[in-house]
Input
Amino acid sequence: MWFVDHQYGACGAQEIALSAPAKTHAQASRERRDVVTGEVMDEARLVRFVAGPDGQVVPDLARKLPGRGIWVAADRASVATAAKKNLFARSAKAPLKAAADLPDQVERLLKGRLLSGLGLARRSGDLTSGFEKVSSAISSGKAAWLIEASDGAADGRRKLLSQARRQSPPPGLVGLFDAAELGLALGLENVIHTAFLAGRAAERWAQDVRRLAGFCPLLPEDWREEPVEAKREPNGLPPNLV
Output
């Protein structure tokens, strides 16, 4: 991944307990318990599920659906384990059924949220597209994320990644969507290079990127074979964000 989140570094639990300041009420209220491991963690690292009217387990990625929430770590293995071991029903104390493709459902929904977020960002002025504009955003240090079309030419992408390598911290990289998908989301044609500008919108968008990284790679497999100068983790997250 291009991303290392020092908040969750390698220090031991005892060291964290001794050195970390006490959590505020607001921070504590954003924490939930993962039904698979029992670990308490920030909502941003979890996926919320609720019971649907037909007794099916329903992903609630926006955390707004009514009903008691059931929280699972945002990764494919955890959601699959919760479904396989009937942990949703145990937590809800009700007969709930989890679809066999529940991890795939979460992945599809997260991808949809990312595309919708890009469209909103363009309308609010938090997104810029085109090689020259993206290059300018990188040079000025304003680019938080690079969204590159999965079917775009490697040459232009390599030039931008080489430029991004010199930034500290470097922007994250997402290569999940092809040019047609990006164009549809942004209302533009032939979208190859896009930059999400730093700010609150980018921070909110990044939460879904982090969650999606637990369900699928953020970059096409063949990109990892390219001699890209910019150092990145396999899922595209910059080292400062893992």
